[in-house]
Amino acid sequence: MIKGTPELIADRRETIINACEQLYATMPFREITLKEIGALVPFSRPTIYNYFQTKEEIFLALFTREYDRWNADLDALLQENRALSKPQLAGKIAETLTKRPQLLRLLAMNNFDMEANSRPELLTAFKTSYGRSLSLVQRLLRKFCPALSDAEVQTVLYVFFPFMFGIYPYTAVTDKQKEAMKQAGVDFAYASVYELVYNCLIRLIGESA
Fold this sequence. Notes:
The chain is an all-alpha fold.
């Protein structure tokens, strides 16, 4: 059992997650180690093991926090709007994901390894946040697109959430990748996060008001 007040425990967890986030801003997942994360926290590296047993668990906690932040945006969209046309809804959801580049980057990772190397309680917390995202998007569709049938709403969810895994690779293209595609003769159409999300959703829910 972790010793300390709930406030201290929560603060240290956030400190560890923040250190991971700081490293992830400039380094790929594979190069980040617990040693490097430990170098950024104001307590001893062994203390990290009281909260997280693997690097994957820390990343899963960061992933959970990103879903929670997106959920807050989706919930605000649900609560603050009485009516939205389909194009307006698609645009506003696109705006929420434009604000969440880190969520999109994490989605593009190998989530199987991350989940496989995390304890069940942390995986459950992650799935709870992910499940809330599904629920909120479903509620948005039911509120603002009432003409959609239950089957059509489920189709939107089944298509859109897997689609999100590919947004980051298509929008965060490096100069090296651009040059390689140019040399390969690949006619690649570059698009923003907003454009990809909006165009996907508007095709799923329709363009009518």
